[in-house]
Amino acid sequence: MTLLTLLLVAAVVALLLAPGGAAQDWRSASREPVGLAPDPATTPEAVVQVYGARALRWRGYFGIHSWIAVKPAGARAYTVYEVIGWRLRWSDSALAIRERAPDARWFGNAPELFADKRGAGVDALIERIDRAARAYPYAEEYALWPGPNSNTFTAWVARAVPELEVDLPPTAIGKDYLGDRIVAAAPSGSGFQLSLLGLLGVTASGVEGFEVNVLGLTFGIDPFSPALKLPGIGRIGPSRVNGAGTLAAVANDPS
């Protein structure tokens, strides 16, 4: 049996075991916050958090929707940056930048925290996140598979701000989409990635570990925070949240 066949068999098994998304009606599905974000009314320090939650309906068996939330020092609300495909039905851009609860359920599905940075130096990161988000080159495009989609956007920003050290899970389908490029930094902004239209590639970095992408499905191993990565299921092992700490070293970053 060839390696490709083994990977495809593993993918089918993983998808069958995947938790998926609840079959809820999007109009009545909960959008309530789950308590992962600090209250801006009592948190004066700057905060950046990266989240993901299972996609709506059948899409949730395969992947997640991800987004980035920021709160500058002294701000009384969070701004969320995300790409939403259905916005293209009435707008020329899928990019949404708006105030909303950072840890709200995504149509009933509870979010998971992928990165959390707070304190000194984080305001400088927020400025870079804003610039990177507004320079996102695929705002007028959207494709569930292999991208560009919401996870392509989050990976784009994470590459531009590697201090976030975002380790997007294998369920973040679209994170490996590079458009017409073949070589880039890994989605975390560290290491390297080879990817052919998000359909075939490899990733190696000190954040992601080692990943193989076959037809948009990611298999990987993280030897640094030991875990196995499987399509549909996600990360098997301790969660890896790069967070809450000060970033004084980037406070004077001129970029």
Structure overview:
The protein is built from 3 helices and 12 strands. By secondary structure, it is α+β, with helices and mostly antiparallel strands. The strands form 2 sheets. The protein has a 7-stranded antiparallel sheet with strand order 6-7-8-9-10-11-12, covered by helices on one side. Strands 4-3-2-1-5 form a 5-stranded antiparallel sheet. α2 crosses α3.
Secondary-structure-derived class: alpha+beta
Number of beta-strand segments: 12
Major sheet attributes: 7 strands, antiparallel
Question: What is the terminal-to-terminal distance?
Answer: 49 Å
Major sheet strand order: 6-7-8-9-10-11-12
Mean pLDDT across the residues is 87
Question: Total domains, how many?
Answer: 1
Fraction of residues in β-strands: 25-35%
Indicate the radius of gyration in whole angstroms.
Answer: 17 Å
